[in-house]
């Protein structure tokens, strides 16, 4: 079985890349492969915005990522620089910068590109969407 790192570069809605990343990750895990982490980069950090509100008849991709984490324990890591530039903040980042609100919460966490690089070194494959 393979060990993957998944890199998500596209926003949750607007094209199918993030949904494809989710379906790939879910299928890989169901098939017995492991995923060290799912790294949200560039516009991919918008997947983790708690304020995303899809219509009731649309697929809720953010909730799907959370359920994937809850079922398999896969780390969901936002690139902190990309997230902050796009207005996605964790509670600790909001407090550090004096903002009273944040829009990213557990199980999503902030991390740097170093985490991605270290993960790539130990993974069999990096798959980007």
Describe this structure in words.
This protein is an alpha/beta fold and 129 residues long. It has one domain (3-52, 60-128): DsrEFH-like (Hypothetical Protein Ychn, Chain: A), CATH 3.40.1260.10. The chain has 5 helices and 5 strands, in the order βαβαβααβαβ. It has helices at residues 17-30, 61-72, 80-85, 91-96, 113-122, and strands spanning 3-8, 34-40, 75-79, 108-111, 125-128. The protein has a 5-stranded parallel sheet, with helices on both faces. α2 links the parallel β2 (34-40) and β3 (75-79). α1 runs parallel beside α2 (61-72). The longest helix has 14 residues, at 17-30. The chain is globular and about 45 Å long. The two termini are 21 Å apart. The mean pLDDT is 96.
CATH topology, by name, is: Hypothetical Protein Ychn, Chain: A
* Elements, N to C (H/E): EHEHEHHEHE
Q: What is the share of helical residues?
A: 25-40%
- Percent of residues in beta strands? 15-25%
The unreliable regions are none
Give the biggest beta sheet.
5 strands, parallel
Radius of gyration: 14 Å
The total domain count is: 1
How many helices? The count is 5
Average residue-wise pLDDT? 96
Spatial shape: globular
Q: Strand tally, please?
A: 5
In CATH, the architecture is: 3-Layer(aba) Sandwich
By secondary-structure content and strand pairing, the structural class works out as alpha/beta
Strand order of the largest sheet: 4-3-2-1-5
CATH class term = Alpha Beta
Cα(first) to Cα(last) distance is 21 Å
Spell out the CATH superfamily. Answer: DsrEFH-like
């Amino acid at each position: 079985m393979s060990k993957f790192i998944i890199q998500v570069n596209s926003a949750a809605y607007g094209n199918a890349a993030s949904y494809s990343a989710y379906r790939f990750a879910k299928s890989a895990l169901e098939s017995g492969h492991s995923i060290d982490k799912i790294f949200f980069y560039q516009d991919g950090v918008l997947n983790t915005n708690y304020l995303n509100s899809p219509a009731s008849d649309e697929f809720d991709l953010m909730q799907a990522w959370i359920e994937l984490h809850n079922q398999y324990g896969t780390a969901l890591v936002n690139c902190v620089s990309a997230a902050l530039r796009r207005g996605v903040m964790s509670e600790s980042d909001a407090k550090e910068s004096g903002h009273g609100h944040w829009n990213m919460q557990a199980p999503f966490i902030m991390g740097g590109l170093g985490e991605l690089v270290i993960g790539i070194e130990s993974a069999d494959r990096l798959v980007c969407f």
